[in-house]
Each structure stands twice: as C-alpha cells, then as structure tokens.
Fold:
Amino acid sequence: MASALIVIDVQNDFCPGGALAVEEGDRIVQGINALMAETQNDGGTVVLTQDWHPAGHSSFASSHPGAEPMSMTEMPYGPQVLWPDHCIQGSHGAKFHADLEVDRADLIIRKGTNPAIDSYSAFFENDHTTPTGLEGYLRTLGITDLVMVGLATDFCVNFSAVDAAELGFKVEVRQDLCRGIDLDGSLAAARQGMEKAGVTLA
Ligand code: VGL
Ligand code: ZN
Structure:
C-alpha cells in the first residue's frame, strides 16, 4: 500500500489577514508540518496544491460588473460562487503560509490557472472533466491511499476528496487539520457529500 498526503491550498489569502481568509486557517500549519514529516518517515509522498489564478479570473466578483463577492452566478459549467480577488499568480496572497515546510513537497500542483474555469478540486477543474494531471502522477507511483488536509474544508478539500474517492482512491480527511469557509451551510453539506462518496472523516 503506497500513500500520499495531499495538502490543499495553505496559502496566505486563505489565512487570517488574507483576501479570502478562513477563520483559524493558520492554526493548522504546525500540525500539517508534523504530518508531512511523519508521512515521509513512513515512505509516503507529499503533494501540495496551490490556488493560482490569473488576474481577472472569471471566478472573481470583480470580473462581473455589479456582482458582490460571495454571491452566486451561473457559468457554462454550472453554478459558481463569485469570490473576492485571491491567489493571483505571483502575489503575496498566493504564496504558501510562511511557516509551512514547503521544502518537504515531492510535488506542487497549481490549479485555477484557466481564466474561464474555476478549479476547487486538485483533480479536475469545475467542469468536472478537465484533469489537472494529479491522478496520473499518483497512479504512476502506485499510490492508492490518500490523506487530505488544508483549506478550505467545504470547497477545495471537499471537491478534492470527493473526486479522489470517485476515482477509486481510499481517502481520509483529517478534519482537525482543515478549516472551512461555511457559506450558507456549505460545511455541513460538504461533510454529508464526502461521507456519501465514501470519504473517511477523521
Ligand atoms: C478555494 C474558494 C476559491 C479553496 C479556492 O481553496 O477552498 N475556495 N478558491
Ligand atoms: Zn480560488
């Protein structure tokens, strides 16, 4: 059994003071550092994901005249939350939290780079068909078991975990090493969706 730890979007913009701050987003960093070390001691692989949008990305409210941040819109691929500008390529907000031990990463995968499609999941863009390449990376290494941690529980962690489970990986989400946005009950809905997909919530 080969396993990987997937660390989702532990970036400045999702931490207190950031553009799309998740409450206590910074509180999980030391625990994630410890889990990355433990994973590598056990021979596992560490993958970091990085939300990495071009300026003017279509998921930004600022790209839709008159739209408020955190409102909903309809995209060709389905409903989409309109976010404040965040994780713009090369910006301070897009950088990993300063205390995250980024040097431990075997792979850093960037997502959300397509201006027309958002990408919550580490596996597919929000059209649910365009792959990021992560599945191929994991499969060619023979990895079957995934542990997921990071930000935000109800968006990028949730979508990544559900996609991974549907792809046939055995997935555990360490809830103590995640924090959520909780937009209109999205956290409870995410927990239900993950359990339904067969994700273990630890
Ligand atoms: C995320 C909203 C927009 C996340 C990324 O990492 O959960 N959420 N972009
Ligand atoms: Zn984003």
In short: DSSP finds four helices and eight strands in the chain.
